[in-house]
Design goal:
Blueprint (H helix, E strand, L loop, with lengths): L1 H10 L7 H5 L16 H5 L7 H13 L14 E4 L3 E5 L5 H6 L4 H6 L7 E6 L6 H6 L2 E5 L2 H5 L6
Parallel strand pairs: 2-3, 3-4
Antiparallel strand pairs: 1-2
Length: 156
């Protein structure tokens, strides 16, 4: 209901008393459906890690400021989308065992698709590459939220 009212104010309301409203005020707006919240406390306790799609959307938008299209996801390669600047990859599964055993290695870097030819932004729990190898493979590494990885510590 609110979205429709905003559209009318932007485009114009012919029967409005105010002349400016009749012509429309111009502008734009975005309507966004928000998914389930990712709560730090539950992630720290490893009670509920976010799904691959939820984390991919959060990371893509946060890192690029651009809209995320989940249809671009290719879990096999880790590709989650292309932005104006990057081809973005996510090495993640909502599993503590996966988080403990996954890293961006030289073999993984070599296996990443070339994509559009842009620099590759890779999110992973950790990396075993130095800056020389990252540059050679046109990769900018970002460690997954430290809080998520911290959850992989054994509980006592």
């Amino acid at each position: 209901m609110t979205a429709e009212r905003i559209r009318r104010v932007i485009k114009g309301v012919p029967k409005a008393k105010d002349e400016a409203l009749q012509k429309g005020l111009g502008g734009s707006f975005s309507f966004i459906e928000v998914g389930r919240p990712m709560q730090l406390e539950t992630m720290l306790k490893a009670e509920k890690l976010p799904s691959y799609e939820d984390l991919a959307g959060y990371i893509f938008y946060t890192a690029t400021g651009e809209d995320f299209d989940s249809r671009q996801i290719n879990r096999k390669t880790g590709f989650i989308g292309e932005s104006a600047q990057y081809d973005v990859y996510l090495l993640y599964a909502p599993s503590l065992d996966y988080l403990k055993s996954t890293a961006l290695t030289l073999d993984v870097a070599r296996g990443l698709p070339k994509g559009s030819g842009k620099k590759r932004l890779v999110f992973a729990p950790t990396k075993y590459l130095d800056s020389i190898h990252l540059d050679e493979h046109s990769i900018e590494f970002c460690q997954l939220l430290f809080e998520i990885y911290k959850a992989a510590k054994p509980r006592r």
